[in-house]
Write a structure and sequence with these properties.
- 42% of the residues are buried.
- Helix 2 crosses helix 6.
- It is globular, with a radius of gyration of 25 Å.
- Helices cover 35% and strands 27% of the residues.
- It has 3 domains: 267 residues, BirA Bifunctional Protein, domain 2 (2-Layer Sandwich); 100 residues, Anticodon-binding domain (Rossmann fold, 3-Layer(aba) Sandwich), CATH 3.40.50; 69 residues, C-terminal domain of ProRS (Translation Initiation Factor IF3).
- The longest helix is centred in the last third of the chain and has 26 residues.
- It is of the alpha+beta class and 484 residues long.
- The strands form 6 sheets. The protein has an 11-stranded mixed beta sheet, sandwiched between helices. It has a 5-stranded mixed beta sheet with strand order 16-15-17-18-19, sandwiched between helices. The protein has a 3-stranded antiparallel beta sheet with strand order 4-6-5.
């Protein structure tokens, strides 16, 4: 049999090198791997199963809010991107461009989709004619390409998967309502599925999406106290509608430009889950997203013991499946139980059930929680209670992960009163500070501390104060932090 000391030993401790820890976990947990193309990754089956659960949880929410899915081309004429000047300027450094097709030079170069506002805007102009055609509420699940200089698996890759919603409305008010509704959908997903506490807020003009009037974000704190932008929702106003002639006849038979939005979450969310909950033993997955919620590990030393244990393990498997639990029976005979424990801990399976000869005799099982290591995370449950107790424990783990992440963020979020306190705060996490709204102050802070303006939180304290950098009057507080 293969022994236990082969998995976690190869993971760099977080305290030693957090970046290396992250890469070790992604690879050893079998989520993704590198490819011969720089910056691109293979999402392996276990990682893709995690993405599918993210996809399904979001897709369900989109459809509940009236959205439908469609698909648009990967290739976009360069002239489309050039119609919206701020948009093309924002994406030009990241574009991959096709100039040859079928062995011949193309009459017009084609951009490989960095985002789809332009091609979708072109199509909406063909489809929308009357106020009766509005609103248009479409989402796309797709891949996009952005030629990144510095890449990291899931967090920033040349090609990645995402969803991008694109909607068109008759009024500014409807479009703004949609923008904030989808931001709320992202908050709900992050909190209730990914167990990640997020701060919803508005991006500064410097940080907003190229071509948007206003951008909104959910910002999360990772385990190394750095920020991660985890989802965005953009109010486009009429910028793209005017660039692509998206017009409709209103009820007074007057021609009007539409008001549009876009919003998206990508495979970066997998990175957020890893870095919010993971530890030195590997992944710690929230049960609602975990590909495998419960793993059953039978324990036996002899063929006779195995003959006693396996029928019980198989019965528990069927009962938990019937209860709607995503469960796996690890019946590999070439590996020791200790190796299996380490393997499933690395993969972040929330709950492990151990069944040995003594458990069979006592008609009980050992339940081991991934989020609480060692003896403290273990309990004994009778077989008769498993269908009820296992789902209850999964719900407990889900809430415990959220509570732990929230406590961590609160511990490392500071409200400095002086700039010296501010610099210390962004070295330890987030600084919530008054900001005058000036891009000059924002840039100076970033150059001095490497901390960026993550967002102006939707939840404001009210009143006014003095800008943390220049001392001028300020009416809003912003979250500053070092970010991925």
């Amino acid at each position: 049999m293969i022994g236990a000391k082969t998995l976690a030993e190869g993971v760099t401790p977080q305290s030693e090198d957090y970046s290396r820890w992250y890469t070790d976990v992604v690879q050893k947990a079998d989520l993704a791997d590198y490819t011969p193309v720089r910056g691109c990754m293979v999402i392996k089956p276990y990682g893709y199963a995690l993405w599918e659960n993210i996809h399904d949880a979001l897709d369900r929410r989109f459809k509940e809010t009236g959205h439908v899915n469609a698909y648009f081309p990967l290739f976009i004429p360069m002239s489309f991107l050039e119609k919206e000047a701020e948009h093309v300027e924002g994406f030009s450094p990241e574009l991959a461009v096709v100039t040859v097709g079928g062995g011949e030079k193309l009459e017009e170069p084609l951009a490989v989709r960095p985002t789809s506002e332009t091609i979708i805007g072109h199509m909406y102009a063909q489809w929308i004619k009357s106020y009766r055609d509005l609103p248009v509420l479409i989402n796309q699940w797709a891949n996009v390409v952005r030629w990144e200089l510095r890449t990291r698996l899931f967090l920033r890759t040349t090609e990645f998967l995402w969803q991008e919603g694109h909607t068109a409305h008759a009024t500014s008010e409807e479009a703004m309502e949609e923008t904030l509704r989808m931001l709320g959908v992202y908050v709900d997903f992050a909190v209730n599925e990914a167990a990640i506490p997020v701060i919803p807020g508005r991006k500064s003009d410097t940080e907003k999406f190229a071509g948007a009037v206003n951008s909104y974000t959910i910002e999360a704190m990772m385990g190394d106290k750095r920020a991660l932008q985890s989802g965005t929702s953009h109010y486009m106003g009429q910028n793209f509608a005017k660039a692509f002639d998206i017009q409709y006849l209103d009820q007074n038979n007057q021609l009007q430009h539409c008001w549009t939005t876009s919003w998206g979450v990508s495979t970066r969310m997998i990175g957020a889950v890893i870095m919010t909950h993971g530890d030195d033993k590997g992944l710690v997955l929230p049960p609602r997203l975990a590909p495998i919620q419960v793993v059953i590990v039978p324990i036996s030393k002899t063929d006779e013991e195995r003959a006693q244990v396996m029928p019980v393990a198989e019965d528990i498997l069927k009962r938990l499946q019937a209860a709607g639990v995503r469960v796996k029976l690890d019946d590999r005979t070439e590996l020791t139980p200790g190796w299996k424990f380490n393997d499933w801990e690395m993969r972040g399976v929330p709950l492990r059930i151990e069944i040995g000869p003594k458990d069979v005799a006592n008609q009980s099982a050992v339940l081991a929680r991934r989020d609480i290591p060692g003896r403290d995370g273990k309990s004994f449950i009778s077989w008769a209670e498993l269908e009820v107790k296992a789902p209850e424990m999964l719900a407990t783990i889900q809430q415990a992960l959220y509570n732990k992440a929230l406590a961590f963020r609160e511990e490392h979020t500071h409200q400095p009163e002086t700039y010296e306190e501010f610099k210390a705060a962004v070295d330890d996490g987030f600084a919530l500070a008054w900001w005058c709204g000036s891009a000059e102050c924002e840039d100076a802070i970033k150059n001095d501390t490497r901390a960026s303006n993550r967002c102006i939180p939707m939840d404001q304290p009210g009143g006014s104060g003095k800008c943390i950098f220049c001392g001028k009057d300020a009416s809003e507080k912003a979250i500053f932090g070092k970010a991925y």
